[in-house]
Amino acid sequence: MDDPGFTFGIEEEYFLCDAGTRLLARELSPRFLVSARERLGDAATTELLQSQIEVASPIFGHATQALAVMRRYRRELAELAIEHDLRLIAASTHPLGDWGAQHVTGRPRYEKLLAEFRILGQRNVICGMHVHVAVPEGVDRVRLMNLAMPFLPLFLALSCSSPFWHRRITGLASYRQSLYDEWPRSGVPDYFDDEEDYAAFAALLAEVDAAPDASYLWWAIRPSLSFPTLELRIADICTQLAEGVALASLYRCLLAALVDSPDLSPRRTTHTRRIIDENRWRAKRDGVQARFIDEHARTTNPVPEVLDRLLERLEPQIRRFDCAAQMDRLAVVAKAGSSSNAQLLVYNEARAAGAGRREALHAVVDWLARTTLA
């Protein structure tokens, strides 16, 4: 296939849970990771907790390519999980997750994080999806990040998959975002002038031993330290892979459009940074049922309408990257709901049929395991 530019990559984090109890795996056999790397190569890696595993994709030029590779990753890991009496789950919180029962992966970085952040590290029983999009040479990634920031709440709303925490309904579509807000240097970043200004801030933190390098800036969007990319980090992991690839395609289209037409981004004022955070709150609470504040029109608009308006403006990029099918999928999510809506529906239907709370949560875990491979 011809390279259409703005290549992208996807990182997905998954939970591993016991096939019988549905509880998160507390300790993972060393053989599991060895086998995962035998099947997936360096794409498979550990995460903070032993109940998690992460995959990092190769570079993609097309959405169909991403679907095929990421689907293989999920299937390979799910088959391996079954061999170890485990299940693979794509959700940003686990319905039966118990943070006090988790074991940290024995890597120096993780041990240092736990020592520094204490209970915050122990409570970090969450998974996410990160999307890297390559930015053309000569384009300042931080200036592009500034243009993209007003759109961040939409990516969260379309991906919400964490309505449960500690066996309870949280009332939030993305409780993962609330857990992340406990951490320093998280959430929506401030506006920096450019990459030089951003690097100067990271250097200041390093000089005073606050953060070793820019990889410890865990914002919802950031320039990658390792690659020439702008990394989207706000999204929950999508239980249905097709929705995750669609979200990555939307992000790719958005960045390409902003490079070509910076005025696609709303005019920034002293209120803008706070409005973005207000809309992020609405997204993490209500998901696709949220109404976002339009700062300049002084109105609120429902998520499906916000998405439709954006897709109209992204038509040239959608054609360029041949991802109309992915955008159609997102339009369905905006109207029908994300994984959070589906999980709550499974839970409520089980309860209505006479199941106890625990049984209903088991039904949600079973649905997640099936849908992760759908």
Structure notes:
It is a single chain. With 374 residues, the chain is an alpha+beta fold. It has one domain (8-372): Creatine Kinase, Chain A, domain 2 (2-Layer Sandwich). It has helices at 30-40, 63-83, 108-117, 119-122, 141-148, 152-159, 175-180, 195-207, 241-260, 272-286, 303-313, 315-320, 324-336, 339-352, 357-372, and strands at 8-18, 44-46, 52-56, 86-89, 129-134, 164-165, 168-169, 186-187, 218-219, 221-223, 229-232, 291-294, 299-302. The strands form four sheets. Strands 1, 2, 3, 4, 5, 10 and 11 form a seven-stranded antiparallel beta sheet that branches. Strands 6-7 form a two-stranded antiparallel sheet. Strands 8-9 form a two-stranded parallel sheet. It starts with 7 loop residues before the first strand and ends with a helix.
